């Protein structure tokens, strides 16, 4: 006879074990989902997407049943709103690509927690869905437009960046002009001071140099007579010497003249 009680115990154990595992897994998934939804989004609210959906879902004005209902918003306005939405998507995709590598390195080093990585992965998934939605909406307006809509949005983004830079430079124009006027005035003032200093130095020295110019000729004239040349200093002595020699020669040439008086005269003159 089969003992059903002994067979029921293992089956009951397996049922309790499987039920507890299923309950734990379901609770864990719910908590994880709640935690993921409770995390702060990586990007702020998508304003361009909200504007597009608000324009798309505007109710058309009430008309008679015979007339065809006109769209509440023109198609061109919806296309422009979709382009703005695609432009914002490009900015967010570029931001995610530039941040992914740095965030992965920080996660490997343990510098950031898993919550931040989960936020980043959630943002990537949302952007993938957003890009698909934009492409499908573009193809709904014009077949094949979804392949070129992001290229057009990229050109619009570059044009917007150029306009913002030009506006920034124009805003700084007045400030730079005022700064340059002050700088030019200071430079002009410095040049005028230098010119005044040069004029004062150029006018003052001639008054001081006129006195030496007048005194130099007097010093030269007074100093020149002090210099004795052989001709000027020796001229009288040579004349007197030549006269004495002539007298001596004449005395010697006279006949019968004694020699002693001439010698005495010569010695006396010497």
Automatic annotation (TrEMBL):
Domain of life: Eukaryota
Sorted UniProt keywords: Membrane, Transmembrane, Transmembrane helix
Transmembrane spans: 6-28
Region of interest (Disordered), residue spans: 191-270
Pfam families: Sec66
Acidic residues bias: start-end ranges: 242-253
Record's keyword annotation contains Lipid biosynthesis: no
GO CC field: Sec62/Sec63 complex
Composition-biased stretches (Low complexity): 209-226
GO-annotated biological processes: post-translational protein targeting to membrane, translocation
Skewed-composition ranges (Polar residues): 230-241
Matches recorded under PANTHER family: TRANSLOCATION PROTEIN SEC66 (PTHR28229)
UniProt name for this protein: Sec62/63 complex, subunit Sec66
Species this protein is from: Aspergillus oryzae (Yellow koji mold)
